[in-house]
What we know:
This protein is of the alpha/beta class. The chain is built from four helices and eight strands; from the N terminus they run E-E-H-E-H-E-H-E-E-H-E-E. The chain has helices at 48-64, 87-96, 116-120, 148-172; strands at 20-24, 37-43, 70-76, 103-106, 128-132, 138-143, 177-179, 185-187.
Amino acid sequence: MDRVPLLPAAQARPAPDWAIAGWFGPATSLRELSGKVVVMHAFQMLCPGCVLHGLPQAASIHRSFDPEDVAVIGLHSVFEHHEAMTPTSLAAFLHEFRVAFPVAVDAHAEGRPIPVTMGRYQLRGTPSLVLIDRLGRLRANVFGRPADVAAGAAIASLVAESDARADVAASAGPATASCDDDGCPTPLVPPLRSLP
């Protein structure tokens, strides 16, 4: 996939809450991550595309972005081979592959084959990349592994979008007027920052 289509902010809805059975690494929630861009990588440890492509991409994102701006969360969402992908197996897998970001185990509901969070986000399979903006809105949901440049550009766009709004709001201050060289009052307009 050459690009990650971002849903416009005006059309975005709040991201669904996660239903988590357990955590590897520090437990967190969308509420606790408010103010950060959240990159959720849904995977299964026995999924070749996840192991060869999705997890390395998530690890690269984790290393490349400032953790003050971007949080990477793994979501182990098992919908097949349940007997083989137990928490004990996952712990060994995460250790062997040196996964450095927090990983949540998607909860299961009795009688439902699809894990709860996977269903809430309408994920089509694994690997999947989900982007949530700083205001907790779902902005992208991509099945498969997008190109690294596309994923990085989409994440950077969400970081810059949030930074630009904060810069404009901070520089606006109270509405006042100033005079130009001719002495005419003109309103102060905050400077706009170019987005990358």
